[in-house]
Amino acid sequence: MSMQTIKPRIRGFICVNAHPIGCAANVDREIAIATREAPGKGMRDALVIGASTGYGLSSLVTTVFGYGARGTGVCLERPPVRDKTASAGWYNLGAVVRAAAARGREVSVINGDAFSDEVKAETIARLKARGAKLDALVYSLAAPKRTDSRSGQTWMSALKTVGAPYRNKSIDLVNDTLTEVTIEPATADEIEATRRVMGGEDFAAWTGALLDAGLLAEGCRAVAYSYIGPVLTYPIYREGTIGKAKEDLEATTKTLSATLHERLGGAAYVSINKALVTQASAAIPVVPLYISALYKVMKAAGTHEGTAEQIARLYRDHLGPGKRPTLDEAGRIRIDDLEMATPNQLAVKEVWDAVTAENVFSITDYAGFQRDFKRLFGFEVDGVDYAVPVETDVPIEPKA
Q1: Count of structural domains within the chain
Q2: Is 19 within a domain?
């Protein structure tokens, strides 16, 4: 037993603790959205790689509770140790496992480095043991580094521009002030390292291993998540090192799709999702300020969606059983359509041009950004009494 009263301990764009009851409440809300938006059946098995937070967590919840799949989630999360809480992702997946069991559904979790051959092998063994045939494969991995299991080489991703420096407004998340940042251009080695971490190689490795193991069902649909964003963020995102990696992901996915179509009548897609507060997006300069402006505009327009609503819509309109996805000219699914609508982008640009250190809290929704950031870790969740001590030693799966 480890009962504690937990308050958030935030270091810039990282929160070093998490609240298990708040995380469980977040999961309950996602389940409610998934069950409201989907028929509750239609899938046999789903595997989500990077399943513990953000779009990956919403994908696991949607496929399991929205479409009745037996779910398997791969994650790399920190368990509770003595007086230290677990990571938010650990508590999130523990809540998913318990909620699934209470509803007669099944969710299994593999906690380890998804880039490694060992975790791939363990996942394949677990899926074979349960007789799985995957209707849905989701790749939602967001990691800063990747180590090759065979060579031992480690690549670190870089958040840099390509070709020229970039200077623009940003929010300093440490002291909540408007500032300017300069992002320097990457070297060729940094561009290649970022491709190795965030490009299509690992998605292809997972898909190929699962296909060779006979674990993909006829008509299986695989999807990897990406982002494009507005011209404002192109230098740091779409035209930067991350964007080069995402170009590699898109090219790889087209090749995978052709293979899946030939072998199984299936397909692979890249889904371009909306900018939202996630642990990954909070780390990218300029993006938190853009998200704060976007939230202000989209909430006023009544078109704001969180990850749960986005993924519910992705499956309802594009990837659910019997659905034929609508693709853009590059073959991508675009559930960032509301974000990128011209009226919204024009309104965001007005906010961006007008924002100053004095008015950042009034003309943007930076307060909403802060609140959503804390909610990622189970804090400031409606209905949770944070003055009450809670048990922090919570297992991710039932102990044998």
Answers
A1: 1
A2: yes
